[in-house]
Specification:
315 residues, alpha+beta, Aminopeptidase, 12-stranded mixed sheet, 8 helices
Length: 315
């Protein structure tokens, strides 16, 4: 078996080319250029791109991109075309996944996850076989902000407060924990896998963080009902629902509808173009709510996730 090597400056472009081989040529070139530029600027790190070389060319690759919150995004193992015999290609992929597991299971990581297109069934089976279980499917939905937004219609009006690191971080964290109870959105990676404080830090990394776009909703008596954390992606002015949840004690009372309508109004007032979100396909109640508010499906992805085997020091 060939040794697994880290990509260096000389081999990284070729390795990424193989990693992106399923994309059309023009899209592949754009993706490689964007990743290399993001790596150069320090926005991401490609230090964990691993490869096999044979006769001076890259014949196998797996790329892991680690965020500072300990999330590791895993690009599936890719082998160059016409590698034979088939058993050899399978051995190479197995070795690359072993390497990926060692990175995810090391201290400092908490999860390794991959998003696959719905037609990547063989890769999905292979990732599950090699230690990255299939978790669920995510439904991606969007709603144009040119559509009118109706006033909130909850039985009881809610007040909202913006996130403030010093004044109410603990309150946001407590409410976040309360929304995890009996959740249908990827419960396998919410309950007990990391603290609410860690989750808040992770959510900050999505899009452009602005504390005014993170809102905690409360009743007139001060009871906290739920959260809506949103961020903006420039230059398209696309808003993303990074996290939305209602405390289990307050579900079924129309508060979720009111919270989302308030968020849509806030996004619309900034001149945003659309709002996007992702939801676990098992969460049929949330999907129905989003559809009532004008959200439409535009993509589906298979989610694979491996919780780090490292000790609690990584979280």
């Amino acid at each position: 078996m060939l040794p697994v090597c880290r990509a260096d400056a000389a081999t990284l472009p070729e390795a990424l080319g193989l990693q992106m081989q399923r994309f059309p040529h023009a899209e592949r070139a754009d993706r490689i250029r964007n990743m290399l530029e993001s790596n150069r600027r320090g926005e991401i790190s490609l230090d964990d791109c691993f490869l096999f070389q044979e006769a001076g060319r890259v014949i196998g690759v797996i790329t892991l991109v680690k965020q500072k919150d300990g999330t590791v995004f895993v690009w599936p193992a890719e082998i160059a075309p016409r590698i034979s015999p088939p058993n050899y290609a399978r051995e190479l992929r197995a070795a690359l996944y072993r390497q990926a597991r060692s990175i995810v299971d090391a201290p400092g990581s908490w999860i390794g996850q991959a998003l696959l297109d719905s037609d990547q069934r063989r890769i999905s089976r292979e990732m599950a076989e090699h230690g990255f279980p299939r978790l669920t499917e995510l439904l991606f939905m969007h709603r144009s902000l040119t559509l009118p937004v109706s006033p909130a219609s909850a039985a009881e009006p809610l007040q909202s407060i913006a996130f403030d690191e010093a004044a109410n971080r603990a309150r946001f964290a407590r409410t976040l924990d309360a929304t995890y109870i009996d959740t249908l959105d990827c419960p396998e990676v919410t309950a007990g896998c990391r603290t609410a404080d860690d989750a808040l830090e992770s959510h900050k990394l999505t899009g452009r963080f602005d504390p005014q776009r993170w809102r905690l909703y409360q009743q007139a008596d001060g009871q906290d009902v739920g959260l809506l954390l949103m961020s903006e992606h420039l230059p398209e002015r696309v808003w993303e629902v990074v996290y939305f949840g209602v405390d289990s004690r307050f579900r079924g009372k129309g508060f979720g509808m009111g919270i989302l309508l308030d968020g849509l109004q806030r996004a619309q007032q900034t001149g945003g173009s659309e709002v996007v979100l992702a939801v676990d396909i098992r969460n049929t109640l949330a999907i129905s709510l989003y559809a009532k508010l004008g959200f439409e499906e535009f993509d589906r992805r298979i989610v694979h996730a491996r919780i780090s085997q490292a000790s609690g020091e990584s979280r």
